[in-house]
Amino acid sequence: MGFILDGLDSESYDRQYSDRELVRRIISYFRPHGGRMIVVAAAIMLSSAANSAGPILISMAIDAVQDQLETGAVLLLVGGVLLLGGLGWVLNYVHRALAAQVIGDTVLRLREDVFSATIGHDLSFYDEHPSGKIVSRVTSDTQDFSNVVTLVLDLVAQVLLVAILAVWLFAVDVGLTLLLVGMAPIAAFIALRFRRVARRVTQQAKRVRAKINAQIQESISGIAVAKSFRQEHSTYAAFDVDNRRSYRVGLRRGLTLNTIWPVMNLASGAGMAAMLYVSGLVTREGRLSPGDWYLFMQAVTFFWWPLLNVASFWSQFQDGLSAAERVFALIDAEPVVVQTASEGVSQLEGAISFQSVELAYTAGDEVLDDFSLEIAPRETVALVGHTGAGKSSVARLIGRLYEFQGGQLLIDGHDIRRLDLQQYRQHVGFVPQEPFLFSGTVADNIRYARPEADDEEVLRAAMQISEGDWLGDLPDGLETDVGERGGSISMGQRQLIALARVLLKDPAIFILDEATASVDPFTEAQIQQGLETVMRNRTAVVIAHRLSTVRHADRIIVMDHGRIIEEGTHESLLAQGGHYCQLYETYFRHQSLAYVESLGEQPTAQLDS
Amino acid sequence: MRKSEFRLESARSYNRASPVRWLVSHAARYSLLPLAVVVMQALDNFFYSFRQVLTGRAFDLLTGGSWELSALLSLALGTVGATVVAALADLLSAFAIETLAQRIERDTRDELYLSLLGKSQTFHGRQRIGDIMARATNDVRQVNLMFSPGLSLIVASFMAIVLPVALIGAVNWRLLLAPAIFVILWAITVADYNRRLKPVSEAQREQFGAMNAALAETVAGIEVVKTSAQERREHRRFARNARLFRDYSVQEGRIQARYLPMLVFVFTWAGGFLHALLLWRAGIVSPGDVVAFAGLMGALRFPTFISIFSFNLVQLGVAAARRILELINAETELDENEDGAARQIEGRVVFDNVSFAHGDRAVLHRVSFSAQPGETIAIVGQTGSGKSTLTQLINRIYDVDSGRVLVDGVDVRDWSLEALRSQVSTIEQDVFLFSRTLAENIAFGCGDASPEDVERAARQAQAHEFITGFPDGYETVVGERGVTLSGGERQRIAIARAFLTDPRILVLDDSTSAIDSETEDHIQRAMRRISQERTTFIITHRLSQIRWADRILVMRRGELVDQGTHEELMVRSPDYKRIFSRYDSGCRAGPASAAQDL
């Protein structure tokens, strides 16, 4: 099925399953519902039979009337039509209602499976794959799959109906039936041709629409600027050109798409006329009863639409299968971080030991190279270096968020690969560069790592940071709604919440990727105090961006290209005059008070230089 | 006439009294098109159904005594002819509705855009861009969809019922019994079906959104989920959402399965057939009439499937129209005050006991201070403490609720708005640049600025260096070929712009942070330079700006809690002192003294 993938959606973990494998996989999901599936299948077959018997009975009724039959017989036939119609409806109900259940249950299981697989992956997986695509595989692709199953069942019902009717018609007259069936390729041809054109104009229209939207976005964002400088006319002129183009392309697409039904109707009408004439002649020769003639006439429309559906269905069917394929590929993708044992971790001192660790996200591209570092319990270590030096890799290895390729990483002397990860991570507190908040209240977020903590514990944790005065700046204190991803509160407040979260969890090891975003000086002061509280009495590994943090660290590790090139305290490293000095000049100098004070000393004349 | 700062002579006016009237007035502009849709749909369905009448005649011909081959041929040709006419009418109607829909999309977008250009800065200063965008893109599109396919489907379905029924009446009026019953029962059952389906479909759609959003959150926060060892909890949450979605899907499937109009169709069709047979036996209708009737009744099968979809589209379209109209009709509350004071501003700004609230949320409470011409005032405080709002009162993006804001001793409300705003400039936190060249962005609004002027301004703003770093220099087009500017660079472009326009009062919202010291040096110099020779308000996180401002306003939750010079505040304000205290210890041991390369 792989050839359907247009390459745009494919991910590195995508694989191609043979059709057989794919079908086997799909069936395995339906197997637990075997009983209900049999009922659905029976309902489909019986309802198709009932629905196709209706027109046949009518044709018989017409013949019966021709032959001047008793009223009773006519009533019986019409009664039969009614009964079959009712029965067809009931069976159709059974088919659809039950199918909705089975498909619902199946897709639910598929979704849960793919979710479990997704969340089981380590961070390298998430780094590699855009989160939007992961989400769409779990929700949209499974939905596409479910839609296609519904579609298949509907189509089977329609095709069965046509098939039963066709068999009957063959028995009545072979030549006429062949004429009828011969229309199928025409319908298919038109439909497929049309799809190609439709796809092209739709893509064009999409592009143009994206352009006009971008144009509007830009001009609305800049409208205040445009207005204050009286540039309305030029802005409008640019918009007008795009708007007109969008109209033209949109219209072309609309007109093209709208030709399909008239063309199809034209083709079916031509078929109907041909059938009227040819079958008329046959009837006149006495080889066809009037009732059967009527049946053939009706069959033109009966046949036309299902055949059209089959033709246009094929590509949807393919899309549905590739959706399933994408989902299975995600389920089957191998997790990289694999624990070799599950040693319990009840208490942790917080000693960390990197021993000749080798790390490469892609083969041959070493991020950490023979990296060794001993961190003592309750030590504060600041990692500094340029972007790409390997600082975050060190921090994240401690959180066991990535797998490493060589060497050893020991926590309190135990191999990190042998620990029970769930238990181990209870003892690790991690604050990423952009603290992530879940929608809910401030208290919910502080409690995130320890859902069982009571309100008092949450409050105590919050009060430990900057004596809790930050809570007063939140409109509803701990009950403040943080909004989607924390959007309702400031960046600085998000950092404070992330710190409170760690305090409540009370881990032995604290890992911080310091934020670079600018925060107002009052909140910044609160964060500083909070940080000091959090780092007290636990092992802290900090990717430092703040001068105050490096100054207060017990030890600064200077990294470059995955190696440690210098280490020591702020003062000793500065005195050394090495790489740290350059880093200080580049990243930290402007944060110093000396710098702030020096600015006042420059004569203003110098500013023009 | 509505106040507007910009209008085109050629712009049309529409009825903006209500969404429906507005849509009608838009459609009325092309009145021929809706008319064509109705007429063509009628023709299409007439000829489409008429083929069933021809089939009936053929039946009579085949079974009756007066057989002629030419008659059969002409009936076959008649069928072809009817088909061709029907298809053509269908095509024309589709073209007409599509043209109408696309034109209305174009026109409404144009109308909305023009009205946005006509709105005051006040309006744009308040409006959220995302909200305007949603209306200018999705809602405008929704109006298009309302016409095509929404309204066109409704017209088509209506005609697809009316014309076959009319033709049945033309065959023999007595045959109308069954179709009449069908139409009544159909209307009842369809309405009932839609009423049942709608809430479930909506709930299902919403649940899908909720499931998606929650999952997106989990994936985005995966680092936190994992390090907090909360995978199981996230799994439970997802499973709960997915299960709820499943339940709605099953419920929806059951409602859809129970589609009563189809049963109504089957029953009335069979009943009608019996009725026709009985009429035939009574000698009232011919066998061909029975066949024609059966075919015409059969044609009602299509509109039986008319979906909730088309009605929904119309509802959504009207709702979208309402939102667009709201925006178009939004009034600007401030008047231009063209007769107000209009002279050169010196730059004295006084806040006299100013209070202001957004709706019922108090933002500023009794704020008083004064700034002398040429002074640099730093405003510090936490996010949401009212810093930005305070500055927006100076150029009247908002007007005070109580108290006064005076510029050169004159209440801002007594200044001519044009004179006031042309001399009070704002450099926002997120500087917006147009997709034009850097030179044009700097000279924006100063059409007469020469390249030399632009370069001088750029040099003063410390932007010359990075601009000439681009291959195309000043001719570099923003946004093209991946040219993006950092926050600090954008800020300096805006400062260069301000050097050209030379406002008397400048508001600088400076909340970006420089990653490295060199950039910081540049920004510092640019800001110090621009703040000379004019009254400058700087909303800032930068300690150096605070340290070296002439005066500092300390805001907390809408109140001005303290003001004064750095030295005064260091003595007086513990809050203020705290922000400098973390720099207490003497780290002056930098290898290169910090000021050296300035």
What does this structure look like?
The complex is a heterodimer of chains A (609) and B (598). Chain A is of the alpha/beta class and 609 residues long. Helix content of chain A is 62%, strand content 10%. Chain A has helices spanning 19-30, 34-66, 71-119, 123-128, 131-172, 174-181, 183-221, 223-228, 232-258, 260-284, 290-332, 391-398, 421-425, 442-446, 455-463, 491-505, 521-535, 547-552, 570-576, 579-588, 593-599; strands spanning 352-360, 366-375, 380-384, 406-411, 414-415, 428-431, 509-513, 539-543, 555-560, 563-568. In chain A, helix 6 packs across helix 11 and helix 15 crosses helix 16. Chain A starts with 18 loop residues before the first helix and ends in a 10-residue tail after the last helix. In chain B, the strands form 2 sheets. In chain B, strands 6-7-8-3-9-10 form a 6-stranded mixed beta sheet. The chains are: A alpha/beta (609), B alpha/beta (598). The interface between A and B is large, with 175 and 168 residues.
Task: Please supply descriptive tags for the structure shown above.
heterodimer; A: 609 residues; alpha/beta; ABC transporter transmembrane region fold; 62% helix; B: 598 residues; six-stranded mixed β-sheet; 22 helices; disordered C terminus
